[in-house]
Amino acid sequence: MSRGTRVWARRGGVGRGVAAAGVLFVVIISVVAAYVVSTPSNSISYSIPTGTGGLTFTSSTIKIGYLTELSGDAVSNGYAARIGAELAINQTNAAGGIDGKTIDLVVADARTDPQMAVQGAETLDSQGVLAITGPTDQADAVAVEGYAEAAGVPFVVSTVSSAALTPPGLNWTVDVEPDAVQWGAAMAKYVSQVVPGAKIALMTENAEQQNEMTAGVKWYASTFKNESIVFDQEYANAQFPWATAAEAAKLSGANAVVVSWLSAVGFSQANVLTALISAGFLPSQIFVIDATSQVSDLGTSATGIRGVTLFDGAMAQGYPNASAFAGQLQPFVNGELNSKEYCGVCPTEVSPLYYYSYLGTEMMLNSIRSVLSSGQTLTRADFMSSIKHASIQDAFGNTLSIADSGAAEGNYYVVAVGPLGSAQSTYPLQLVKNIRFAPGVVPAYQLAKTA
Question: What is the dihedral of CA 204, 207, 208, 214, to 10 degrees?
Fold first, then answer.
């Protein structure tokens, strides 16, 4: 994500690498077994530290491993997610901890590199953490998942929305953020409701999350057949000839455009919308499938456009919990509390990166409370059993829960972009509808693997 820009975007930011002070990577030489995990780009071998399999957590401090991108391409996302986690833990410790125990967030740098992410997981495991959480980069998360499953370490993925992270048969991994395939299906369902018999033009960047979202749109259209795909174009951000593509989409007979982009340097959302509107599409016919946060560079034509999001600080008005969370984060995102321990490169909108890291950490803390309140000794297995049945209320009063598969079940929120006032620098968003799919309705994992 570009610095200082409000973005409807996938995970994967662009920023100057910043290494967190005091983070050390240790080479683990004590090996019980070696494993290989396949990632999108390479095969990674890793080692399982000895003496961690039978851990119990009885001391006055419980350590949670926070492995995220504090350097590399996703640095801004990693720091943003870390702030959300630290907020949740600081609130808990300020209230006396859990059963008198203090929660310690042990931070390591994944470096936006799957091999380094696995080394970070090995190091945290050897330090006796209860569980690992934190990656915002999909390739890092996939690599750490392989390690967690082999080593028996609970892995809570809070800020990656890929359904590919929850294949059948997982024992030690859960995903808190609702997945991108169902995100796309939610958008298609909404389009079918507001544009009956919709003829959709799909314009999608060739990136992991965007492709999964597009798979969800296509699945909904082919399954329910109350809309059709008449134009399907993949693109690259800065180089794509938007004016030509917009004209072609209009000539296809489309009466709705579903667009999914990955914000990056050299790419302007305003140019996309200008091209579509110049080709003859109305703002009310344009639907952004990846509305994960507010947008500041949409130009003068954004009013009336709709998108689907998980959370946005700009839609908090009228929702006390959402407004309170946005208020708590504001000192960090506007620079009042920035420091080297936080970032200076974080996205300046209160977006799902912050919020789902916070929610995921809250679910972990609640699971620890549940185990300890039952009188059990806290172990990794007991923690995992608890979080696999965890649920929490989101900022809009709806339930976010973990399904038996380890995937999240939550709500997707349709937002409409309101008019930009003379004293405003960002567009207001109005929450117009929430959409939730019943468990198992969308074959999300299968679609993600073929996207």
Answer: 10
Binned at pLDDT 50, 70 and 90, residue 44 comes out as confident
Same domain, 339 and 357: yes
Dihedral over Cα of 12, 13, 16, 20: its sign: negative
List pLDDT tens digits, range 200-245.
999 988 888 899 999 999 999 999 998 999 999 988 766 678 889 9
Question: Are 98 and 64 in a shared domain?
Answer: yes
Closest-CA residue to 173 (of 209, 148, 201): 148
Tell me which residue of 289, 361, 362, 293 sits closest to 76, measured CA to CA: 293
If asked whether residues 130 and 249 sit together in one domain, one would say no
Residues 54 and 98: their CA atoms lie apart, in Å, by: 22
Asked whether residue 312 carries a pLDDT value surpassing 70, the answer given is: yes
CB of 132 closer than 8 Å to CB of 124? yes
State the distance between the two ends of the chain, measured CA to CA, in whole angstroms: 23
- pLDDT tens per residue, range 337-369: 655 455 566 777 788 889 999 999 999 999 999
Report the phi/psi class of residue 253: left, alpha or beta, with left for phi > 0 and alpha for psi in -120 to 50. Answer: left
- Residue 193 in this model has a pLDDT that exceeds 60: yes
Whether 13 maps to a domain, the answer reads no
User: Are 415 and 400 members of one domain?
Assistant: no
For residue 423, the tally of other CB atoms under 10 A from its CB is 5
Within a domain: residue 22? no
Q: In sequence order, which residues have a C-beta less than 8 Å from that of residue 404 and are 6 or more positions away?
A: 388
Return d(Cα 389, Cα 59) in angstroms, integer. Answer: 25
DSSP state of 295: -
Instruction: Quote the DSSP letter at residue 101.
Output: B
Element (H, E) at 429: strand 429-435
Q: Are 14 and 1 in contact (CB under 8 A)?
A: yes
Amino acid at 110: A
What local confidence, expressed as pLDDT, does residue 235 receive? 83
- What is the dihedral angle through the alpha carbons of 244, 255, 206, 139, rounded to the nearest 10 degrees? 150
- Residue 104's pLDDT band, with cuts at 50, 70 and 90, is very high
**What mean pLDDT value characterizes the chain?**
83
User: What would the two tokens of residue 91 be?
Assistant: 């609130």
- Domain extent at residue 329: 34-178+321-409
